[in-house]
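Chain A, query sequence.
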Amino acid sequence: MTTPCIISVAITGSVPHKKDNPAVPITVAEQIESTQESFEAGATLVHLHVRNEDGTTSSDPERFARALEGIRKHCPGIITQVSTGGRSGTGHERGGMLSLRPDMASLATGSVNFPTRVYENAPELVDWLAAEMIQYDIKPEVEAFDLSMIFQAVKMAQDGRIKAPLHVQFVMGVKNAMPVDRETFVFYVETLKRLAPDATWTGAGIGGGQLKLANWSLEFGGHCRTGLEDNIRLDKEQLAPSNAALVKQVAELCAQYGRRPATVAEARKLLSLPTAA
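Chain A, predicted structure.
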């Protein structure tokens, strides 16, 4: 029996822009269509930002609501995950869509340098977002941009601010943050296993590190994130024609490691999420 791999697709994000790759979905209708194509290619989790019509990132709960409604309609059972990151607004505005009760939401448990700014996650805000996720029965995906965020997430789970079991995403390749480095990646995996043996995890590589992280994650028994939010290319020369093409790339890679894309039911069970209605 091959071990299933949850393929997460980050369809839009805040970068890159359409000028970098016209395949990036901007409108709600484009996002729904792109998610459906990715779902059919093997993705069972969608990571969602929303944008205004001019392409700027939005924190508008109404846009999130329309996107979630369409995604749930056209992708039965897919795990919906919203971003509460810094480009989803400021302060409590970043959690304004949590009342929509997506299955999951991102949660960075500390601050980190980004290319041109500090991605600031003050302790008060982290605690507030975590409390909102408990209130609305949303599973956090802990975004680990460095080692300290793993330790903080474990502490939060121990004192009840996050419901266990944890799900952690190792984010590598953001400029000025943790680079794509195999020894560090292995240390991440071993540290999480030591501190939270029941935790699940995903590897997310940015830019040219996307496929490298997919290979490492499949090798070490984790799950994979792909999508145009993180990377606009299939390879150094070719722009990705769609999110679905990037999902297909990872789905085909699974077999090299004795893995296969997880079904919706398997993905939900692996992440301790309820069965889809």
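The longest strand covers residues 139-144. Residues 3-270 form a domain with the TIM Barrel fold (CATH 3.20.20.70).
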